[in-house]
Amino acid sequence: MPLPKAELHLHVEGTLEPELAFELAARNGVELPYAGTDELREAYRFEDLQSFLDLYYELMAVLLTEQDFADLADAYLARAAAQGVRHAEIFFDPQAHLARGVSMGTVVEGLWRALGRSEENHGISTRLILCFLRDESAESAFETLEAARPYLDRITGIGLDSAEVGHPPAKFRRVYEAAAALGLRRVAHAGEEGPPQYITEALDVLGVERVDHGLRCMEDPALVERLVRDRVPLTLCPLSNVRLRTVDTLADHPLPAMLDAGLLCTVNSDDPAYFGGYAGDNFAAVRRSLGLTEDRLRELARNSFLASFLEDDEERRARYLAEVAAYEFGDAVS
Ligand SMILES: [Zn+2]
C-alpha cells in the first residue's frame, strides 16, 4: 500500500498521456503530427522549457468537449489513486482553452464530471484551482476571472503559472485583490526559475497562502526564516526540476536542506505525463536519490495534508493525518 498523500501542485493539462491524446484526437477528428504513441512519447523527451511548452500547447488541441476534460481528469485521478493520493488540488489553465474557442463552461463542467464523482470512483477528495498564465496580460487574467464567475461554486482558488522570468507577481495585484474579495484562496508559482524576490512579492503583494515551487528561497536566508516562522507551504516538484534543468540531477535537489531548515515542504508531480512520474513516483525518486528516512517521508506526507485547503472539512483532514501516522513503510514506497 502506498503512503497516503495529498497532491497540491498538479496541472491537469500536464497529465495528458500519449495514448489518451491519440484517443481524443481520433474522437474529435484532430490531426496530430506524430505517427503514433511511440513517436509522441519520444517527443515527450524534450530538452528544455520552451520545447516542453511548445508540445504542451500543441497537444491541448485535442481537448474540445466536456467529455474530453472529464476523461483527462478521470485518467489522472485513477493514476493518482494507485499512488496513494487521497486528496488533490488540481490546477487548470483556462486561457489556453479560451484562446482556442473552448468556453470556460466546457472546461469547468467537464472537469467537474470527473471531480464531482472522484470520491466514489477513486477515493480522492478534490479542489479546483484556476491558474492565470503570467506571460499573458493582467487584463487577460481579469477577463478570465470574470468568465469564471458563474462557476465559482466549483473553484476553490486561483494560481499563477507558465514562464516566470520577466513576469513578476506584482503584475497581477489587481486580479488577486478581486479574487480575494470573492473569497478565493490564493497560490502562485514563484522562485522556480525566477529570483527569491518573486517569492517575497507573491506573499506581500498577492497575499498567497502557499508558494508553488519556491526552490530559490534558499538563496535568501531572511526569506527562509520568514517562510519557516509563518509556516508557508512550498509545493516542490522534484522530477519536474530535473527535467526542466532547475537542478542538475535529483541528487543535487535542495529538498533535504529545505527540510533541515524547517520549511514546510511538500512533494508533487507538476506535469506528470511530461516529467517522468506521478506523485508516488516523485516520493520514490527522492527516497532513492536523496536517501530520505521514513520519518522524513512521513513528514512530507503529513505536510501535504496540513498545507491543503481542507479548512472547510477538518474532520477529513484529521482522518488523513491519522492514516499517515499509522502508515507502515515497506520496501516499495511510495
Ligand atoms: Zn507548475
From TrEMBL:
One of its GO terms (molecular function) is adenine deaminase activity. GO terms for cellular component: cytosol. Zn(2+) binds at H9, H11, H189, D270. Its cofactor is Zn(2+). Keywords: Hydrolase, Metal-binding, Nucleotide metabolism, Zinc. The record marks H213 as: Important for catalytic activity. Catalyzes the hydrolytic deamination of adenine to hypoxanthine. Plays an important role in the purine salvage pathway and in nitrogen catabolism. Belongs to the metallo-dependent hydrolases superfamily. Adenosine and AMP deaminases family. Adenine deaminase type 2 subfamily. This is Adenine deaminase. It comes from Streptomyces lucensis JCM 4490. The lineage of its organism: Bacteria, Bacillati, Actinomycetota, Actinomycetes, Kitasatosporales.
